[in-house]
Amino acid sequence: xIVVTHLNGSQFAINPDLIEKIHANxxxxxxxxxxxxxxxxxxxxxxIEIIRGYRASVLRMARDLPDxxxxxxxxxxxxxxxxxxxx
Length: 87
What we know:
Layout: E1 2-5, E2 11-14, E3 19-24, E4 28-32, E5 37-40, H1 44-64, H2 81-85
Antiparallel strand pairs: 1-2, 3-4, 4-5
Keywords: Cell projection, Cilium, Flagellum
InterPro entries: SwrD-like
Organism: Arthrobacter flavus
């Protein structure tokens, strides 16, 4: 989700994957895939940069995830207190 600002100053989050087009006429208008429109304070270039930053952060997080194809190291068994009490 990205955070943008309504013309009245209130901020809201929107899914950038649902933005079909961005118009600057002169207000920045987000055309959504469902046919609705949202007018925001940010410029066209600012919205594009916000989306670019969001997508880069998603890629960074995905890069940092463990590889699901690699086996997970097993934890070594730690003896409990009852196991070592009789020894």
